[in-house]
Amino acid sequence: MASLNLLVAVSLIYVAFLFAVAFGAERAAMKGRAGWLRSPVVYTLSLSIYCTAWTFYGAVGYAARSGLEYLTIYIGPSIVMIGWVWALRKIVRIGRSQRITSVADLISSRYGKSNLLAVAVTLIAVVGTTPYIALQLQSVTQSVAAFAAADPSIVLPADNRATALWVAAGLAAFTVLFGTRNLDSNERHHGVVMAIALEAVVKLCALLAVGIFTVWGIGGGVGQTLARIDASAQLGQWQMAPGRWSGLIFLSGAALLCLPRMFQVLVVENEDERHLRTASWAFPAYMIAMSLFVMPIAVAGLSMLPEGANPDMFVLTLPLSEGHTGLAVFSFLGGFSSATSMVIVAAIALSTMVSNHIVMPIWLSLSGKGAMVSGDVRHVVIMARRISIIGVLFLGYLYYRLSGGGTALAAIGLISFSGVAQFLPSMLGGIFWRGATRNGAFAGLLLGFAIWLWCLFLPSFGDGVVLPAGVIANGPWGLGWLRPHALFSITGLDPLVHGVLWSVLLNTLAFTGLSIFSFPSPMERLQGAQFVNVYQHSASPRGWTGGTAQSEDLMIMAQRLLGAREAQKLFQSEAARQGVQGYLPDPNADFLQRLERELSGSVGAATAHAMVGQIVGGAAVSVEDLMAVADEAAQIMEYSNQLEAKSDELLRTARQLRDANAKLTQLSVQKDAFLSQISHELRTPMTSIRAFSEILRDAPGLSEPQKHKYANIIHDETVRLTRLLDDLLDLAVLENGQVSLNITRARLGDILDHALAAAGGDPSALKLRRDKPREGLWLQTDTDRLAQVFINLIANARKYCDATTPELRIAVRTGEGSLMVDFIDNGAGIETDQQTLIFEKFARIGDQKAGGAGLGLAICREIMARLEGSITYLPGQGGAAFRVTLPMPAANAAQ
Amino acid sequence: MGKSVLVIEDEPNISEAISFILSRDGWHVATHSNGVDAVEAVRARRPDLVILDVMLPGRSGYDILRELRAGPETGGLPVLMLTARGQPKDRALAEEIGASRFMTKPFSNAEVLEAVNALIRP
Q1: How far, in Å, CA of B96 to CA of A38, rounded?
Q2: What is the ipTM of this complex?
Q3: Where does the record place the Histidine kinase domain (chain A) (predicted)?
Q4: Domains of chain A, with CATH numbers?
Q5: pLDDT per residue as tens digits for the range A204-259
């Protein structure tokens, strides 16, 4: 015979095993070896918390009472899972990209992060879930009682309250331990998920084992079992109420989306969107397996167990009555698993909602510190969650105590479903309809919840418990149209269908109507865009996506805050700056900063930051994000500084290259011109020589003076030719560095006197201004070469100075280790672009005819280089000005 | 005969040589040594022939020829161009502008005489 002690021992061992599994999974996840934890199979199994103890035990009871109707509870979620996987995927994507922590968070986040809405959803969820938790406690205590009843040696406790309390306390401990290890609910609860996946396997195996035992162990095979089902008075008749069936299918389907615990495993604990693909067939398959043996067990229970046995306990009492204690214990563990997994996840989900949306806001406003104290707040959040878990379980226990654990609980499952189904319009409307507003959602939720309370929840306690029987029969204050089971005086509907129909219908109507007639706030609008267009906003299906700002959303926001024209101007100019066509620039860090600055002018910096962050990051912008932006900005600035320096350098190089190129081009032109020039310079004297020599030869009767004159011309031209050739040779020698210097001592003044005398031309035509005292300097250098330079400069001044009274000033200056002799005339000077060219050989300025071949200054430059000095053009002196510089040692040495 | 010629040449020795040769051939020779007002000199003297150097102080012989060819009175005037630059492009340029004859320095006296007489003959 089964012993209660054995049961307790097995339960404790099982719980210890669950602890170990959860602990192991946590450890593995922490060490990063959690690959197998993130498999689609684990995900699918964790979804099976949909099958609670209510399903495990209650389905058989349901079948025993209402035939095949129990199937609706499985059909609804299966339809959603198979047919609506795209909607689920969208919810999962939104959940991940928006860091959603619960149903309440989803709805409040969608409608402009309204905390009021979150509080409303949380309260509805708590009210709707608490009876369900109570139901689990009841099923565990009932199953213990069933065992106790089969063991006469045990004196049954007066009531089951102690058992329920112990179970509640144990579950609270487990949940606190593994459910609040991590603060961020997005850091998944690997331990818990692993434990409930294991429990899902246990409960399935247990139910299958009992079913197999029923069909083949005591039922005599499939054929006989089916025959017995046909024969059964209650089950055999195929009765199907279309209204009730469709209502139940709708309800259970909605529950899959709306139940806080389902949302927790479906969205929050989801590791990978692609797991949904596996779950979409594996989860319905699991449901089919769970429902496979419900009918056989129900039939066997009805026919074999004594009249009046609780059909809800057939799964347990059938093997017990047949003396199969081991199977019964296994079955008990299955039911225990169903109950505990549901309670654990529900407690986690509810505690997250309660602590995030009720406890924390209150604590923050009371402590007055704001959200700036990071360490403290983390601690408080974890405490709030733990207290919430204990609170939720205590509420469940309290409900169990108050309701007396009667049969009334059996119906509470569906009522609980219809309570949370009130979230459906706001939820689906929020993710598929951008026009949905907070006001609409709030109105719909409140109206639906109120109708649910009035028509389903309060009457569920039974006639006269909460609502007086008179009110249920005749309506409050005699208002017949307000009767809980016949709203608007429409009678004849099943009470459940009636309640669901009215609550969801009016909820949807209020939601839609108010959404159409109310305007969303900017934040709602933004969030709406983020939710409805989640696939455009989150590029990657994996991981948290950040920085996926939509320029269009930014534009919408900017237009609302700045006005359409200003915003468009801003966006257009930024787009132009980025080189993008149209109005929509890329939302890079630069632009976002600029936009934020613009916006902060209208709404203040903090709000602007939050609003931009809202679009850019989805969640609030963290300090790290800001640091990254600042860092990036600094890098960009540094980079642009480097670029600027680089481009300056490039500019300089380019300028030098351009100069060099210009010089080369000019030189090439000059060289070309020189060939003509040298030809001209050679041919001109040769022309005279040839012409006059022919005259002397051919013309008869020339007078002696004529002959003499022409002979002289020939002579002079020959000298000119020779001088030209001398110059060319001189330059060639100087350029090749083959010149040998003849260093002698002389006074500067004497050298100048010599040069002036040798320069030729009319000395009186050029007025001289000299600095005689300073010319007393003694020089030790190649004085002949230096004189050659001076001669050139003086001759040039005589040739080219175009002033009416030409004047040449020769200034002597010493300093900075050198001697400088400046030759400055009062002519027009030399054009700036020619100043560098004049020292090139063969260079001639313009095409004016001058005496030389353009070699003079080139020769001067070469000479000065040999003398370790230089000759330069001195701009800005009012005329042509040349500076001859000699190193001072050469000057000093002679003093 | 009594044909008149204007020699526009800045190199005095060459100018003198040409004057001597042509005078002995019976030409009335006038000389001009500046490029700037050479066109005015041609219009004032109305010679039968012009001998024009290319490299003149103040203005290039090519420019002067262009202006002469553009004027109604001087458009058909025979012009013998002289240049000390022997490059083909100089000759091409002179012919393009409308020089009647082009000679490179140094030239033989007989050549010059033959050229001017050929130009003046109808």
Answers
A1: 92
A2: 0.92
A3: 677-890
A4: 4-28+37-410 (1.20.1730.10), 538-620 (no CATH), 628-733 (1.10.287.130), 740-892 (3.30.565.10)
A5: 888 888 888 888 877 777 777 777 777 765 555 556 667 778 888 888 888 888 88
